[in-house]
Amino acid sequence: MDSGSSGEEPASWDELYNINLMPSEFFLKFRKEIQGFRVGINMEFYNAPCNEYQAKLVLKPLTPEWKWKFIYEPIHHDFRLLSKKIPITKFLNLQVGVGHNFQMHATGWKWKLTTCLGGDGVSRIRNKTSVGLFPGFDLRFGWRADYVLPEVTGALGTGEPMFNMNSGRLQASLDRVEAIITHSDSD
């Protein structure tokens, strides 16, 4: 869509706008709420770049004062104690954790800065959207959109085109689908 003097053919719409609706991650989460705690079993299936399966046991306090969760991965003999995401700014979060791997007899800690925005030269939005289908059953979709906004420019008497349009780019994908089944004490 660039009508500049570069002489290149404009890109096709398929190259400019790509939306992938095949998720690379499928999660099935079973949760039971017991006396202020959530006990969960996560079965995680990854189909890209290679097929992989993980199981996790998760223990998480439900009260807002508690800022941690415990995760045990029986396949890897690995456990972690993770903090909740701590907001640093409106769009920047910090998460810290300590863990131990029983097979390797190793203990260590990690930290992670995350944001829903960013990318390398391209704007990116990452988000999760939840849909409650009925009490006790939710679907959560993790999606991502990398984009360059359309741009219209022009000039007169400068040797540049009088009208120039860059139609932008969009690459969006549905990265993760989670089915969450929750059973609470009140059910």
UniProtKB/TrEMBL annotation:
Q: InterPro entries this protein is in? A: DUF7781 (IPR056683)
Q: Which Pfam families match?
A: DUF7781
**Domain DUF7781, which positions?**
12-183
Q: What is this protein called?
A: DUF7781 domain-containing protein
Originating species: Senna tora
